Amino acid sequence: MGLLGPLPGDANTGRTEKQAVADEADDERRFTAIYDACRQRVWAYAVSRAGRQVADEVVSETFAIAWRRLADIPDPALPWLLGVARNVLRDGHRAEVRHEAFVAELGRWTARPAEDIAEDVAERFAVLRAMAALPDGDREILILVAWQGLTPREAARVVGCSPAALRVRLHRARRRLTRAAGDGGLGESGGEPGTGRAGTRQQVRTMSREMS
């Protein structure tokens, strides 16, 4: 042991350095696993909120923050990441710009082959028009739950409210979506495929897969 601390060959120093290297490798592995598992979902969220032109930038900034705050990321990581992406979007893009970006995506999502069933196409148009007509907050809640498949508790973590408040907002957003769609196959009753809340969620999830 030297006067100012461990000598270069000290065994304790060697173990400390090895542990630091091991910890860094663990961090890199964890970050890579989170990135691989969540990158596409974060990108799809950014597209749905602000359009494709800025989605890559939002994803890059979100994961840069994630790397800096890796120790803060809980399991599951997706709600936390979407919350970061939401803040990135909120800081850089006004609500009206986000709405314009969502409307601009309609042409991409509604392009369908000619052989598709007409009723399915009509339902898709109804959902898209209804989503575009909703207030930004309602649209975000529906995107998180129906699009991203988050639970109300996870979605509440993203938007920064209580699960109870999120459930109230979700109920209102679904009701407004059904009303905006003019009940065109999206009513609250009935058990046929494509109807009711489940039908609305199915249509939105289908469009989400096509968007990614």
Structural domain tally = 2
What is the CATH class designation of the largest domain? Mainly Alpha
* Secondary structure category: mainly alpha
Q: Based on CA inertia axes, which overall geometry fits?
A: elongated
Radius of gyration from the alpha-carbon trace, in angstroms: 22 Å
How would you sum up the major sheet? Answer: none
Strand percentage lies at under 5%
Number of helical stretches of at least 4 residues: 10
The second-level CATH architecture of the largest domain is Orthogonal Bundle
Instruction: Please give the share of residues in helix.
Output: over 70%
How would you name the oligomeric state of the polypeptide chains in this document? single chain
| Straight-line N-to-C gap | 59 Å
> Element order, helices and strands?
HHHHHHHHHH
Average the pLDDT over all residues and give the rounded result. 76
Kindly report the CATH topology of the largest domain.
Arc Repressor Mutant, subunit A
Number of strands: 0
- Low-confidence stretches at least 5 residues in length (pLDDT < 50)? 184-196, 207-212
Biased composition (Gly residues): 182-197
Family: Belongs to the sigma-70 factor family. ECF subfamily.
GO biological process, one term: DNA-templated transcription initiation
GO molecular function: DNA binding; sigma factor activity
